[in-house]
């Protein structure tokens, strides 16, 4: 009985079909847009301006943003019904980000003969699990639309409730060299702060 030849999958992303690359890029772009909306919600719930919002939220991981939104909403939502709406919207955002994570955190491989694409999924929670799951550009494009719409639903809610960070009025200070030597030089040189 002859055994089937071993398949050597192509993991070079440059060899993925253009429509697959486009769909993956669309997932990434939609995710960035939706994360920005969540960041704006945090700024709005805190009552801070748009620049302070960016300073606070830019490096927050998505799970932390979710926890912060829910905690702030609980403190400031005018009714349990509005809190439920925020929870429902954030559940949808989290579901969307789970789809994003499956796409961008797992390698995509191409079958060398058929050209079919597979997501190489890895889990290591309690035990190591590896699987090759067939995927299509159309599926990824649908996921990108879902990710984008989760953010837009959240944005529509924010607009309907007047929730969002304020526009910055004070000018932004030019970025300073904040390393220790630069601070010492400013102190030793008698450089005065021109922005009280």
| Approximate strand percentage | 5-15%
Number of strands: 3
Largest sheet: 3 strands, antiparallel
Overall SS class: mainly alpha
Q: Taking Cα atoms only, what radius of gyration do you get, to the nearest Å?
A: 23 Å
Provide the spatial order of strands within the biggest beta sheet.
Answer: 1-2-3
Number of helices in the DSSP assignment: 6
Give an overview of the whole structure.
- The chain is mainly alpha-helical.
- The protein has one domain (13-170).
- It contains six helices and three strands, in the order H-H-H-H-E-E-E-H-H.
- It has helices spanning 18-46, 50-57, 62-76, 80-104, 137-161, 180-188, and strands at 107-110, 117-124, 128-135.
- The protein has a three-stranded antiparallel beta sheet.
Task: Name the features.
single chain; 196 residues; mainly alpha; three-stranded antiparallel beta sheet; 3 strands; extended
SSE layout:
Elements: H1 18-46, H2 50-57, H3 62-76, H4 80-104, E1 107-110, E2 117-124, E3 128-135, H5 137-161, H6 180-188
Antiparallel strand pairs: 1-2, 2-3
Helix pairs in contact: 1-2, 1-3, 1-4, 1-5, 3-4, 4-5
Q: Can I get a quick summary?
A:
By secondary structure, the chain is mainly alpha-helical. Helices cover 57% and strands 10% of the residues. The protein contains 6 helices and 3 strands; from the N terminus they run ααααβββαα.
